[in-house]
Each structure stands twice: as structure tokens, then as C-alpha cells.
């Protein structure tokens, strides 16, 4: 599979580190609010990546964290603690907020056919692991204590900007927007590994540590959780593109400093879902959730299709009109699939050829819109219906659009016709079907007219030609 690697800025032929297991890590949600459909775009595309890798035969081990501590309002360690903010807003405890929004996230995933990774770990479960990492970083000289907090010292690295060459001006942006500078930092990009001197007197979640009572920084949790479950290396790390800097940059800095060697080979970044006001975010602007889509009458899988129709490395603009287009596409697709009859035998050669086209689309840097086109190729293919159904079932293990289930539902919802039954008329209707198959239109028309003269109308249905008396 060719995958774009944010680290090398190139499409690379994916090769896993180990023959028996492919290790994948995903940055999970910060559970202080519902996930918006922008967040879920990232999770949908990461889900399709995992399912594509499985489709290609890899044994994927995937881990995801749940950020229930340590993420401040600004990704640069400043502002209010997001969890505390959520708790205050709803007059609940931080743990109640975390539980509620973690469950809500899983419910959304289920509705969108996003497979939940086998290992999901809340940051609050791994405090000893984080403390151990911070201690090691201090021992190795990559960290320092200042004003009660522990900071990572970015000046100790040969190269800090791994994804982009940020220039000073880029970094000034935060300052211009009024983010106050932390005077404890020795270098501009140093970041907090462990907070003790928090400005939040009422910080709800605090743990004892060698540096005093406090809580971990946001970045350390993903390094700690992935190393805990995946070991000292991993194949693919995923997240939204907004996390490339500083979150993933800092993850690499501290993980490689801690391990003393390269950590992760491929970085998979999903680009943003934007509204007309810019990037959809939890803190500002239009905030769209799966529940809202449902309230407005959309099947969540329409949103999944909407995401699959565009490439994960392009920004995607959300408008209701665009979603309506996806809804129409989905309906038409399902109606076409509903016409297929589950009869006969699968043509293995045709099926293999169809699958090959589908796999080629995924192999080309996860070209999901081409993979959706492969569904139409199936419907147009010169083969019997069972072969088509077999291909669609196979593709749907990756696409997750419930193609066959939705088609069955569609068929069941169609009004049931009362059809006639009479051996003589049945024989004529069958003869007409044969004539049509043989392209003997004159004979087909003759039979139709003969039946019409007897007050009988022929009706074409997914189950073949039927008739009724008018
Ligand atoms: P958060 O819950 O804020 O930690 O974000 C969860 C995931 O959603 C992260 O991988 C983010 O990078 C990603 N994300 C945030 N905003 C967007 C957006 N507008 N479009 C796509 N992905 C996003
Ligand atoms: Zn992360």
C-alpha cells in the first residue's frame, strides 16, 4: 500500500516493522464535550485505514487514548484545563464529564460504523507510566524543573521541527492572539511534561509525584500509552492535521529522547472539515454533532459516505447542500443494490477482478472516492447478481456503509403488491421474459398485448416479472 507519510512528505510503500503484527496508534478524543463531525471525519478516515490494512491481510493492533486530563485550552500548555471547563459548565465532576462524553463518543462511533480500537486507554489509568517517563527524561538530561513544573528541553534535540519547517513568525501567531508566555520555559518550544504549580487551585485530578502533587501534560499521555501497549516502536500514528504541531512534534521529541531511537515510521494526518467560517472546532463556531444530523433526518452513514467521497489529505467543506447530495447518492445506490437477486453461483474470476480494482484504489494512498467508484463498477459489471452481491459485501468490510443491510431494509419498506397466480398466465409471463432475454422484442410485445387484451398488466420487480388484473 502506498501511503503519504507526513514525516517524509512523500507517498511511500508501506512496510511494517514486524511481519506478524502492524502497530497503529490513534490520538483519541478530549472528552469534555461531544465530538463534532470534524473530529469524526478524522476517526472515520482512520477507521477506513485500519480496515483497509486488515483487508490487505495485516494483523492490526490498534491503540487509542482518551484524554481525560492535562489538555489545556491552548495546545501550547496555556489557558484553562479543558476537562475542568466542561465540569464547571455542566456542574458535574471531571470524572462524570469524562465518562459521559466517552460514552457519547462511542455511541457516535457505532452510528458511523467506526470500529473502536481493541485497546482504549484513558490517560488517568496510566499516571505511573507517565511519571516513569518524565523521571527518565530528567535523568537523561532532556528535561528540567522550573517553577514547580517539569519541562521538556527542546534545545537538547538535533531536530525539533519534524513535520514542517516552522519559522519564528508562525510561532508568533499564538503570542499575537494573546496567549501569555510561560516564563519558566528556557526555550520557546519547551513544553510541560508534568504540572505541579498549576494556576488552577481547584484542579480536580491530581496525583502525587516526585515533583509534588500535580498532573501530566497532554503530550506525554500519547507517548506513555502507546509505549505501554505497543512497545518501543510503532508503524502508523494517526490524528487530525491540527495535531501535527505541537502535539505530535512533542510526542516524537519526548518518545525518541526517552527510547534513544526512532519511534514511529509513518504519520497519517487527516485534513480538516471546515465550515464557511473555517475549521470546525469544539471551542468556536458552528458545532455539528451526529445527533444533530439525525435530528435533521440524516442517516449518519450519509455523513460517512460524504467523507469517503473526498480524499483524507484535502480539506473538506461541510455544507448542508453537500450533505444532501451525499444523501441522494446513498439512496440511489441502495435502491440499485436492492434490485439484485441473491440467486445462483458466484463467478470467482469476475469477483477477483472486481476486488483487485477496489484494492488498487485503497493502495493508492487510501483513495476512498475511487473505492466508492468501484462500487458503481460492480453494479455495471457484466456478471450475475450474486457475484455483485459478493463483491459489495466484501467492499463493505472497508467502506462500512451497510450496503446490503440498507438494501434489505429498502426492499422490505417497499409496499407489497398483490400479484396474481395462474399457471397459464404465469407461463405467458415467463415466455415474455424469455423473449426479452433473447432480445426478441416483437414476440415480447405480442405477449404483452395479448395479456393486456385479457385485462392483465405485467409488472417488473426485483424478483422478476409478475402480473396482476387491472
Ligand atoms: P480532540 O477531541 O480535540 O482532541 O480532537 C480529536 C481528533 O479530531 C484529533 O485527531 C484532532 O486532530 C481531530 N480534529 C479536530 N478538529 C478537526 C476538524 N475540524 N476536522 C478534522 N479533524 C479534526
Ligand atoms: Zn495524541
SSE topology sketch:
Blueprint: E1 2-5, E2 10-13, E3 22-26, H1 37-55, E4 60-66, E5 72-74, E6 78-81, H2 82-90, H3 94-111, E7 119-122, H4 127-139, E8 143-146, E9 149-152, H5 168-176, E10 191-195, E11 215-216, H6 218-230, E12 234-240, H7 244-259, E13 264-270, E14 273-275, E15 278-279, H8 290-295, H9 300-308, E16 316-317, H10 320-338, H11 348-363, H12 368-380, H13 385-399, H14 403-413, H15 423-437, H16 441-453, E17 456-461, E18 464-469
Parallel strand pairs: 3-4, 3-12, 4-7, 12-13, 14-16
Antiparallel strand pairs: 1-2, 5-6, 8-9, 9-10, 10-11, 14-15, 17-18
The protein binds adenosine monophosphate and zinc ion.
Zinc ion (ZN) binds at residues 27, 222, 239, 247.
Quick description:
Helices cover 46% and strands 17% of the residues. Helix 11 packs parallel to helix 13 and helix 12 (368-380) runs antiparallel to helix 13 (385-399).
Could you explain the architecture of this structure?
With 470 residues, this protein is an alpha/beta fold. The chain is 46% helix and 17% strand. It has helices at 37-55, 82-90, 94-111, 127-139, 168-176, 218-230, 244-259, 290-295, 300-308, 320-338, 348-363, 368-380, 385-399, 403-413, 423-437, 441-453; strands spanning 2-5, 10-13, 22-26, 60-66, 72-74, 78-81, 119-122, 143-146, 149-152, 191-195, 215-216, 234-240, 264-270, 273-275, 278-279, 316-317, 456-461, 464-469. The strands form six sheets. A five-stranded parallel sheet has the order 7-4-3-12-13, sandwiched between helices. The longest helix has 19 residues, at 37-55. The model is unreliable at 168-178 (pLDDT under 50). It binds adenosine monophosphate and zinc ion. Adenosine monophosphate binds at residues 27, 29-30, 38-39, 41-42, 67, 239-240, 242-243, 270, 272-273, 279-282.
Amino acid at each position: 500500500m502506498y501511503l503519504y507519510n507526513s514525516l517524509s512528505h512523500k507517498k511511500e510503500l508501506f512496510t511494517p516493522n514486524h511481519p506478524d503484527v502492524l502497530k497503529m496508534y490513534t490520538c483519541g478524543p478530549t472528552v469534555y464535550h461531544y465530538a463534532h463531525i470534524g473530529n469524526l471525519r478524522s476517526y472515520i478516515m482512520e477507521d477506513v485505514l485500519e480496515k483497509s490494512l486488515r483487508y490487505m491481510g495485516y494483523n492490526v493492533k490498534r491503540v487509542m487514548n482518551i484524554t481525560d486530563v492535562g489538555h489545556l485550552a491552548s495546545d501550547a500548555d496555556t489557558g484553562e484545563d479543558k476537562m475542568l471547563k466542561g465540569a464547571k459548565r455542566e456542574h458535574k465532576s471531571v470524572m462524570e464529564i469524562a465518562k459521559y462524553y466517552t460514552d457519547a463518543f462511542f455511541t457516535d462511533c457505532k452510528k458511523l460504523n467506526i470500529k473502536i480500537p481493541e485497546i482504549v486507554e484513558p490517560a488517568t489509568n496510566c499516571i505511573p507510566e507517565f511519571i516513569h517517563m518524565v523521571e527518565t527524561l530528567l535523568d537523561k538530561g532532556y528535561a528540567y524543573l522550573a517553577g514547580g513544573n517539569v519541562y521538556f528541553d527542546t534545545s537538547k534535540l538535533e531536530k525539533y521541527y519534524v513535520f514542517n519547517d516552522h519559522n519564528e513568525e508562525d510561532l508568533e501567531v499564538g503570542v499575537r492572539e494573546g496567549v501569555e508566555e510561560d516564563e519558566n520555559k528556557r526555550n520557546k518550544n519547551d513544553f510541560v511534561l508534568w504540572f505541579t504549580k498549576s494556576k488552577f487551585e481547584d484542579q480536580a485530578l491530581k496525583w502525587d509525584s516526585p515533583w509534588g502533587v500535580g498532573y501530566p501534560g497532554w503530550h506525554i499521555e500519547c507517548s506513555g500509552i502507546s509505549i505501554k501497549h505497543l512497545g518501543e516502536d510503532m508503524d502508523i500514528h494517526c490524528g487530525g492535521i491540527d495535531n501535527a504541531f505541537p502535539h505530535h512534534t512533542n510526542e516524537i521529541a519526548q518518545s525518541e529522547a526517552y527510547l534513544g531511537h526512532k519511534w514511529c515510521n509513518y504519520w497519517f494526518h487527516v485534513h480538516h472539515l471546515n465550515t464557511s467560517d473555517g475549521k470546525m472546532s469544539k471551542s468556536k463556531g458552528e458545532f455539528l454533532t451526529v445527533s444533530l444530523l439525525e435530528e435533521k433526518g440524516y442517516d449518519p452513514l450519509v455523513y460517512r459516505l460524504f467523507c469517503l467521497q473526498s480524499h483524507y489529505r484535502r480539506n473538506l467543506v461541510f455544507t448542508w447542500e453537500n450533505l444532501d447530495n451525499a444523501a441522494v447518492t446513498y439512496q440511489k445506490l441502495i435502491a440499485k443494490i436492492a434490485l439484485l437477486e441473491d440467486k445462483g453461483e458466484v463467478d470467482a474470476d469476475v469477483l477477483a477482478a472486481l476486488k483487485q480494482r477496489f484494492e488498487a484504489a485503497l493502495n493508492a494512498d487510501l483513495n476512498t472516492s475511487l473505492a466508492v467508484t468501484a462500487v458503481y463498477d460492480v453494479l455495471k459489471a457484466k456478471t450475475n447478481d450474486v457475484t455483485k452481491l459478493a463483491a459489495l459485501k466484501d467492499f463493505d468490510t472497508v467502506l462500512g456503509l451497510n450496503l446490503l443491510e440498507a438494501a434489505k431494509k429498502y426492499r422490505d419498506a417497499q409496499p407489497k403488491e398483490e400479484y396474481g397466480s395462474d399457471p397459464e398466465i404465469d407461463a405467458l409471463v415467463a415466455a415474455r421474459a424469455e423473449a426479452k432475454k433473447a432480445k426478441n422484442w416483437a414476440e415480447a410485445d405480442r405477449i404483452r398485448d395479448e395479456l393486456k387484451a385479457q385485462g392483465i398488466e405485467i409488472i417488473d420487480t426485483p424478483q422478476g416479472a409478475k402480473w396482476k388484473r387491472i
